[in-house]
Amino acid sequence: MRVETVVEFEQVSKRYGLRYALRDVSVRLPSGRIIGLIGANGSGKSTTLKLMAGLIRPTAGRVRVCGAQVTRRVSQRVSYLSDQDALYPFFTAEDLIRFFNRVFSDFDAGRAHAMLEFMRLRPDDRVGELSKGNLGRLKMVLALSRNAPLILMDEPLSGLDPLVRQSILRGLVSFVDLDRQTLLLSTHEVAEVEPLLDTAVLMAEGRVVDVRDIDDLRGREGLTLIDWMANRLGQPVGGPEGIADGR
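Given the sequence above, the corresponding structure tokens read:
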């Protein structure tokens, strides 16, 4: 049976030396939705995803995924797409599909091959020879080919041609089973992801400012996501912090 809350942060802080990347964050995120973790660079988005993925541990507080406290073993329930290029350069796309199929019991090789075709990638494409945009596409293929309850994607639009971002995002979402999965992506490309989102989590300076249902914003308040962000942050979005324009 699917849990109603897929992620829970309870008074979570993360400190690096004297600097806080996250400070006293408490939030619950619903399952079966596409959730956008939005905010300027340095707002704490990547740290939040790494805590969910079990890659780092909180300085204080608790993080739960699917009702269980996060440990290194959470990788069996979480598929994580990093913003870093961490794939072996000498592997081909087919090599990576075989590797992921051996490592993760929930990996769907058939889905991966279908997504390769959708992304216009070839099985014999070598990682080290791919452009930044095509490498980003391959990483999406690997992350979304798992049947994990929670899929995390850190800045998935980075390096993609602006002319194809919308078509790629809409196509990829069709590969996610929202009856069994939750997709959570971080981005500062707000306008481009808004049509895909069900829920938005706004972060600033290591804190969660607000969590809102997108349909409520549009239907009840008549606000776009950017309007809401500007209201909550008290400044024009896309200005000094460069949220909407990608800086």
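The chain is about 30% helix and 25% strand. Try to locate this feature in the token string yourself.
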